[in-house]
Amino acid sequence: MDKIYAHPKSLRDISTHYCPGCGHGIAHRLIAEAVDELGIREKVIAVAPVGCAVIAYDYWDFDCSEAAHGRALAVATAIKRVRPGNIIFTYQGDGDLAAIGTNETIHAANRGENLTVVFINNGVYGMTGGQMAPTTLLHQKTATTVSGRDEKIHGFPLKISEMLALLPGVKYIERTSLHSPQEIIKTKKAIKQAFSNQLEGVGFSMVEVLSPCPTYWGLTPAKALDWIRGTVIKEFPLGRIK
Amino acid sequence: MVREKRQKKVLMSGNEAIAEGALQAGCCFYVGYPITPQNELIGYMSVHMPGRGVFIQAESEIAAINMVYGASAAGVRAMTSSSSPGISLKQEGISYIAGAELPAVIVNIMRAGPGLGNIWPAQSDYFQATRGGGNGEYRCIVLAPSSAQEAFDIMPVAFNLADKYRNPVIVLGDGMLGQMMEPVQLPPCALRPAAGEFKKPWALTGSQGRKQNIIKSFYMREGELEEANLRLQKKYAQITKDEQRYEEMETKDARIILVAYGSMARIVKSAVKSLRAKGIKAGLLRPITLWPFPVKAFQQTNRQTDKQINYLTIEMSYGQMVEDVRLTVSGRARVDFLGRSGGGVPSEEEIIKKAVELYG
């Protein structure tokens, strides 16, 4: 009988600290599968974020560095410049990539750094208790927008992927989601594409992944997926952006 | 151009001497952001680093220090330079570098503060450099050259100490040192360490043929951070024991020891000569490592028991290093202070006047 399934070598066979229904575990696994399938596990250097996924390096089995909150793309830029033969990716949340680290994000993209970025957009700050993120939807209730996000006070959901798409240094951006098996398969394909781009020297490639945070959305895991399907993708439409 | 000049004396600014010293020490990653009075340093690196390593002009001081973190994590000798307000921006990154135990060299060509202050030389970042301006309990080794030649010579020392202890090293100069043109004797060959002298098995290179490497300063599980912090403290104790550096001039029979570092010590040197000419037994003690503070220099037997000795600390600040002098002397001798900051530099005349007034 042919073996058609195995645990990815790049992912440790241990349970994670994530909440039930969280998207991080799925995203970690998709990255691990993509890395294994491309045969780059021993070349990969990951830069982990500050946020819920800070200890991603305990789950992945390849070289990893932490970065200060928002600075992942500065750290990754230097690693790639020093070691152009390695495959470097950052894994960042919305607060990390699109609030505190916006400057590092825009300038790494604008320099056209040959890097892969996996951007997890769940619309809240998870680790600190579900506060408003730059990507929080209008009227969405969070720990710091208890009556819902009001554009007059809090501004609008930040579409950083569309902003980055304007930069000539950016070669590939796709927005995907984890709300169904079909979308998960598409997410993996996009992540693999973003790694392949780096292998081929194409340039800055980013996958924005809409990811559920049932705990801070105040929804059950199943309802959280429905919310992405019915609401989030209206503000953040899926598909190739660049 | 530099290659032709290498074996002779060349005229360089302190900023250029630091850059050339770093290159000869095997620094192959430089990242900076323009700020006066250190612009000659980033300028020199932009011309001379390409071909030898990576030069990046970063989008901010914050990005710059985090790039140093990344390059060092990847195993190369990395540095950044800036001046006071820019160094303030780097403090978070320096704390992470110290916490992750990465080697790094950070040059601060101090200007006057607080805030935007002005671009005149100052020594008002002593506390920030020696106490650590970032969060948590960490120490940076702090080296304070006082001439362009010493600035050049100290760069290999800075990189070696950084690699040896896996710790950030700050080279603390001031606008006067950075801008002043002086002859610098360049050695006939590069000063980089021999291959294999500083092995970095912890570096991120891809996990081929070995287990995963992780660079981090986050310890979530109970007891882990305490263990890591104790490891740091042990390292700092070792550095304190082994790495104190200082220079003495005319201290053997001195009744007044003037204590000054960096550019300030140059002026104090002249003052000591003039005081000697007046028959006052003055000497100079110049700390080269500001952390670890050269306690040993103050602990020599004759000074410990001789209450006749007075210390006069001179700084381009309103009294920062003098606190370390007082802690070290610990009431055994009188410690006086003269300082200016905000653009003013204590002159030779002011120093002589103060010394005569106090002890003449």
Kindly describe this structure.
The complex is a heterodimer of chains A (242) and B (360). Chain A has 242 residues and is an alpha/beta fold. Chain A has one domain (24-240): 3-Layer(aba) Sandwich (Rossmann fold), CATH 3.40.50. Helices cover 39% and strands 18% of the residues of chain A. Chain A is built from 10 helices and 9 strands. Chain A has helices at residues 24-38, 56-59, 72-82, 94-100, 102-110, 151-154, 160-165, 181-199, 214-217, 221-235, and strands spanning 44-48, 63-66, 87-93, 116-121, 124-125, 131-132, 170-177, 204-210, 239-240. In chain A, helix 1 (24-38) packs across helix 8 (181-199) and helix 4 (94-100) packs across helix 5 (102-110). With 360 residues, chain B is an alpha/beta fold. Chain B has 2 domains: 2-242, 3-Layer(aba) Sandwich (Rossmann fold), CATH 3.40.50; 247-359, Rossmann fold (3-Layer(aba) Sandwich), CATH 3.40.50. Chain B contains 14 helices and 16 strands. In chain B, helix 10 (262-277) crosses helix 14 (348-359). Chain B is globular, with a radius of gyration of 21 Å.
How does the SSE layout of this entry go?
The complex is a heterodimer of chains A (242) and B (360).
Chain A: H1 24-38, E1 44-48, H2 56-59, E2 63-66, H3 72-82, E3 87-93, H4 94-100, H5 102-110, E4 116-121, E5 124-125, E6 131-132, H6 151-154, H7 160-165, E7 170-177, H8 181-199, E8 204-210, H9 214-217, H10 221-235, E9 239-240
Parallel strand pairs in A: 1-2, 1-3, 3-4, 4-8, 7-8
Antiparallel strand pairs in A: 5-6, 7-9
Helix pairs in contact in A: 1-8, 4-5
Chain B: H1 2-5, E1 9-13, H2 14-24, E2 29-32, H3 39-48, E3 54-57, H4 61-73, E4 78-82, H5 84-99, E5 104-112, E6 118-121, H6 126-131, E7 141-143, H7 148-165, E8 168-174, H8 175-179, E9 181-185, E10 214-215, H9 224-242, E11 246-249, E12 256-259, H10 262-277, E13 282-287, E14 289-291, H11 295-298, H12 301-305, E15 310-315, H13 321-329, E16 334-339, H14 348-359
Parallel strand pairs in B: 2-3, 2-4, 4-5, 5-8, 7-8, 12-13, 12-15, 15-16
Antiparallel strand pairs in B: 1-9, 5-6, 7-14, 11-13
